[in-house]
C-alpha cells in the first residue's frame, strides 16, 4: 500500500513538474533563435593615420583581463543627449533599428572583446579606442584574453565560408550577432575581418582593417542596417575615417533613455526598412545577402511567403550558406511546419563549421522535435547543444527538460553537478531545485 502511495505521489510530482517546466521552457528557453545578421564593409585610411595606429598613439583601451568579474550594468540615467553639440534630428536610427521595430543593444556598460592574434591587432585596437573616446559615457570596450567569455569575438581570416563564388562582390567584414530570448539585447557578437582579398593572395593593409573594424563594431553594438549616406561610418561600403555627426547621433539615440525621442525618430521604421531592403536587392541582385536581408524584413512584417521567396533566391546564389537555411527554418517553424523546419535547420548545421554557431541551430532542432512530441530526438539535439556550450544556462535547462521527458535521472544529476562546479549559484534556482528533487 505504501509503495502504491509513493508511486502515486511521484506521479503527481512528475506531472506538476512537467507542466511547470513545459510552460517555463517553451516560452522562455525554447524561443526560436533569431538568425544572425551578416554585414559587409570595406574602407581605408591614409598612410599617416596607419602609422599613427601602428605606433600606438590611438591605443588607449585596457589590455587587462576583465572577463572574470561581473560586467557593470548599463545605467541609462546619465545618457542624456546633448542636443546643443549636434543635431539629433540628423540621424539614421530608422536604418539602425531591427525590422520588427526593436532597438537592440548591450544591457551593460562594460563590453569585453577578444581579439585574435594577427598582424592587424593594433589596427583593431585602434578602432576599439575610437569608440571608447567618442562613446565613453555610454559604454566602454575592454579587451580580454579569454575568448569563450568575451561579449565580442574578433577574428582575422583569409576567407569567409560562404564567400566561394568567384563572381561575388568584395566583402571585407562580416558580423554575426546573437540576441537574448526576448530580442531586447545583444548576447554575443562574432566579427570576421578578411586579411586577403577574395580569390587573391593580395593582403589588405592595416589601415583598411581599421576602417572595416570600426564599421563592423557598429553592427556589434546594435546597428542592424546601414546608413544611406556615404559620409557615415555605417554606410554599406564606407571609406570614412571617423564618426560623422550622424553616426554619433544615431548611436547615442540607440543607447539613450529618451523614449519619447526614440518613438518620434523611429515611427516610420517599417517603411524605411522595407524600402532599404528592396533597394539593396534591386541594386545587388547577384549578392545573396541582399535577398537574405529582404527576406528578414518580409518575415518581421509577417509576410512569410514573400520571405521564403527571397530566401530561395538567395539559395540560388549561395547554396552552402547556413544563414539562409537557418532563416528558412525559422519561417517554417513559426508557421508550425516542423518537418520542413527540421529539414532546413539540418542543412544549416551541415554547412556550419563552427561549433559556437551550431548551438542555436541544434537548440531549434530540439525545439522542432519537442513540438512534434518526439522527445527522444529532442533529447539528442538538446544534449549536443549543451555539450557544445556547457556554460550556457539556457542550453542546460533545455537539456534537463529533455532528460525529464525521457526519464534520464542520472544524466540530470551529472549535468547539474558539472554545471555547479563552474557556476555554484545555479543550485539556488527554483527550476534546478525542482529537477533535482525529481531526479532523486
Structure description:
There is one protein chain. This protein is an alpha/beta fold and 440 residues long. The protein has helices spanning 2-29, 47-54, 93-96, 121-134, 206-220, 245-254, 259-265, 269-283, 288-300, 304-317, 322-334, 338-351, 355-371, 375-388, 393-405, 409-422, 430-439; strands at residues 110-115, 140-143, 152-157, 173-179, 186-194. It folds into two domains: 2-33 and 286-439, Serine Threonine Protein Phosphatase 5, Tetratricopeptide repeat, CATH 1.25.40; 47-267, 3-Layer(aba) Sandwich (Collagenase (Catalytic Domain)), CATH 3.40.390. The protein contains 17 helices and five strands. A five-stranded mixed beta sheet has the order 2-1-3-5-4, with helices on one face. 46% of the residues are buried.
**Count of helical segments?**
17
* CATH class placement of the largest domain: Alpha Beta
What is the number of domains? 2
Radius of gyration: 23 Å
Strand order of the largest sheet: 2-1-3-5-4
Query: Which structural class is indicated by helix and strand composition?
Result: alpha/beta
Mean pLDDT: 78
Shape: globular
SSE run: HHHEHEEEEHHHHHHHHHHHHH
CATH topology value of the largest domain? Collagenase (Catalytic Domain)
The name of the CATH architecture of the largest domain is 3-Layer(aba) Sandwich
Major beta sheet summary: 5 strands, mixed
Going by CATH, the homologous superfamily of the largest domain would be Collagenase (Catalytic Domain)
Fraction of residues in β-strands = 5-15%
Number of strands: 5
Amino acid at each position: 500500500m505504501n509503495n502504491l502511495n509513493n508511486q502515486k505521489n511521484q506521479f503527481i510530482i512528475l506531472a506538476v513538474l512537467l507542466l511547470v517546466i513545459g510552460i517555463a521552457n517553451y516560452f522562455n528557453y525554447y524561443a526560436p533563435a533569431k538568425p544572425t545578421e551578416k554585414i559587409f564593409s570595406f574602407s581605408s585610411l591614409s598612410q599617416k593615420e596607419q602609422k599613427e595606429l601602428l605606433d600606438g598613439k590611438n591605443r588607449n583601451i585596457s589590455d587587462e583581463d576583465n572577463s572574470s568579474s561581473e560586467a557593470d550594468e548599463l545605467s541609462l540615467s546619465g545618457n542624456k543627449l546633448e542636443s546643443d553639440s549636434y543635431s539629433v534630428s540628423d540621424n539614421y536610427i530608422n536604418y539602425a533599428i531591427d525590422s520588427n521595430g526593436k532597438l537592440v543593444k548591450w544591457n551593460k556598460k562594460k563590453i569585453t572583446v577578444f581579439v585574435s592574434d594577427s598582424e592587424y591587432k593594433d589596427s583593431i585596437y585602434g578602432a576599439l579606442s575610437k569608440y571608447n573616446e567618442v562613446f565613453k559615457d555610454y559604454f566602454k570596450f575592454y579587451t580580454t584574453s579569454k575568448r569563450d567569455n568575451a561579449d565580442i569575438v574578433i577574428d582575422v581570416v583569409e576567407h569567409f565560408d560562404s564567400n566561394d563564388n568567384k563572381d561575388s562582390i568584395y566583402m571585407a567584414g562580416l558580423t554575426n550577432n546573437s540576441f537574448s530570448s526576448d530580442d531586447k539585447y545583444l548576447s554575443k557578437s562574432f566579427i570576421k575581418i578578411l586579411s586577403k582579398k577574395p580569390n587573391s593572395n593580395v593582403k589588405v593593409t592595416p589601415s583598411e582593417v581599421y576602417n572595416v573594424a570600426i564599421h563592423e563594431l557598429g553592427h556589434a553594438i546594435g546597428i542592424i542596417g546601414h546608413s544611406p549616406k556615404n559620409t557615415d561610418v555605417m554606410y554599406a561600403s564606407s571609406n570614412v575615417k571617423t564618426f560623422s555627426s550622424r553616426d554619433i547621433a544615431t548611436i547615442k539615440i540607440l543607447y539613450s533613455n529618451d523614449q519619447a525621442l526614440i518613438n518620434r525618430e523611429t515611427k516610420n521604421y517599417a517603411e524605411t526598412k522595407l524600402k532599404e531592403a528592396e533597394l539593396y536587392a534591386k541594386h545587388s541582385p547577384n549578392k545573396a545577402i541582399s535577398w537574405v536581408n529582404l527576406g528578414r524584413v518580409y518575415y518581421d512584417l509577417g509576410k512569410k511567403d514573400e520571405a521564403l521567396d527571397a530566401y530561395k533566391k538567395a539559395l540560388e546564389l549561395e547554396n552552402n550558406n547556413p544563414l539562409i537555411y537557418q532563416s528558412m527554418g525559422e519561417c517554417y517553424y513559426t508557421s508550425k511546419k516542423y518537418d520542413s523546419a527540421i529539414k532546413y535547420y539540418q542543412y544549416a548545421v551541415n554547412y556550419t563549421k563552427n561549433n559556437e554557431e551550431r548551438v542555436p541551430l541544434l537548440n531549434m532542432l530540439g525545439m522542432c522535435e519537442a513540438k512534434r512530441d518526439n522527445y527522444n530526438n529532442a533529447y539528442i539535439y538538446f544534449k549536443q547543444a549543451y555539450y557544445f556550450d556547457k556554460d550556457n544556462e539556457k542550453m542546460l535547462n533545455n537539456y534537463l527538460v529533455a532528460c525529464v521527458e525521457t526519464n534520464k535521472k542520472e544524466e540530470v544529476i551529472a549535468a547539474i553537478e558539472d554545471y555547479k562546479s563552474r557556476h555554484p549559484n545555479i543550485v539556488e534556482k527554483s527550476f534546478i531545485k525542482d529537477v533535482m528533487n525529481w531526479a532523486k
